Amino acid sequence: MSKPILELIDINKKFSVYGSFKILGPKSYVNAASNISLKLYEGETYGLVGESGSGKTTTGRIILGLTKADSGQVVYKGKNLLDLSRSEFRHYRKDIQLVFQDPFSSLNPRKRIGDILEEPLIIHDMGNKKQRQDQVFKMLETVGLQAEHYFRFPHEFSGGQRQRLGLARALIIKPKIVVCDEPVSALDVSIQAQILNLLKDLQKDLKLTLLFITHDISVVRHVSNRIGIMYLGKILEEADTDDLFNNQLHPYTRALFSAVPDFTKSYKKRDTKISGEIPKLSEDFKGCVFYARCPFAKDKCKNEAPLTEEKQEKHSVSCHYVEKFKER
Q1: Domain layout of the chain by residue ranges
Q2: What is the pLDDT of residue 133?
Q3: Which of 90, 72, 101, 95 shows the shortest CA–CA distance to 7?
Q4: 8 Å CB contact between 301 and 236
Q5: Dist CA 237 CA 190 (whole Å)
Q6: What pLDDT score was predicted for residue 37?
Q7: Cβ atoms of 76 and 63 closer than 8 Å
Q8: pLDDT value of position 280
Q9: How far apart are CA 244 and CA 261, in angstroms?
Q10: Prediction pTM value
Q11: Cα separation of 57 and 300, whole Å?
Q12: Ranges in the chain, pLDDT < 50
């Protein structure tokens, strides 16, 4: 396989949790990312899937430089972005852009759409006034909007149109990588399909690499080439999309697939049920992060963290007992 366009190597990030009196110091810590390693290849879509609180958005924000990792590397064009100063990182920022989950709150309600879309071009000193305006009109057409929308305000658009504007703002400076953080979760199902199809067309036309963050299994199947399953700051399973949909190896992945009704029987899934919410692990916990909710857990799972191993070709999983229950 070719060299990755971007690589995360052993990324760690924990957040402090304070009690009633912050002056006494943090009460505990939450591991939002724990030894996260993944690779993005040019032109692909990598789907990052997990429950709320699993660390998906934190991982995306670390790539974008919006959250500082405690340790690890984010390698892009041979540079570790985590070692760069704010001014040095600005040179790379236009190559890595973000599409927000809520398009309305991400658009300035006081500005017209033309000014909103032109702002990234001004920040990165791209073209003169006439060239920037022409670029905005062209981008509006590219995302399925009209030239007259240039003069409107965000509140005059529907949810689907606002997400098209979010895509336009991210793409107008011609990035190489786009992090899509739950870009369709706030939209109606019919509108979701339109935005996803648009995203796939834009990816092909503009040769984009996408990190698609979501909790929706059905959505991620539609857009992703590879999928990583994330839980409590760790990637528990990673595989090509078709392989994962036909052969889930980790109990947590099975549970996610079991929770999604598939009336067409278009993929293979085994009935695996889990209960309870994502727990808060103590700092000295050394076992598998899924131990407390896993129906197959044993004492070894509590005391020893499993290694991530490639159990099948291009299919890696972090579990002690995959071989014992994978055919159940």
Answers
A1: 6-95+175-325
A2: 95
A3: 72
A4: no
A5: 30
A6: 94
A7: no
A8: 72
A9: 17
A10: 0.91
A11: 30
A12: none
